[in-house]
Predict the 3D structure of the following.
Amino acid sequence: GSANRFRVSCEQARQGEGEEKPAPSRARARRSRHARRPIRPTRAPTSLQLTSCSYRQEILLRPEDFILAYESALATQDWSKVAPLIHEDACVTFSNGSVHRGKSEVKAAFEKNFAAIRSESYHVENVDWIRRTDEVAVYRFDFVWSGTIGGKLANGAGRGTSVLVNENAGWQLIVEHLGPAPA
């Protein structure tokens, strides 16, 4: 699934407005029209997508939203979609042990992977929240990926730990450590 997204202007986001309710399904819409009462969504808004902001594309309201946004951004294999989710001081360690410090090194590493692995699919599973506050979230997870390398199908899996910080109007990755799956 993907996070519920709501388009709002920057001014609305700053004022806490614009959290519109998603359109009900056709079946629910028919019921609500006959019942003459509004249908409330069962799930609260999870992120706001800004339509006219230059500083950020999206405000992520919960750490869970970060995970969904990160998976979606990685699936595009486009650094410009991933960049807003990465903190300037990020440190990422890949499964092969390579360490990338700072956003520019992380960018270079991700773009190298994007070029090497075509049509990559990356999914996070079994998330275990270690610590969650309003400023910091730490979680452990399993990951699986698949794609094409040199014209041949490839895939892998492993375990990771990530640290998120809630700065700059949303959650950003500051540390990610990826390793092999347990034997």
Remarks:
- Strands lie at 5-8, 47-50, 58-60, 86-93, 99-101, 118-132, 136-149, 152-167, 170-180.
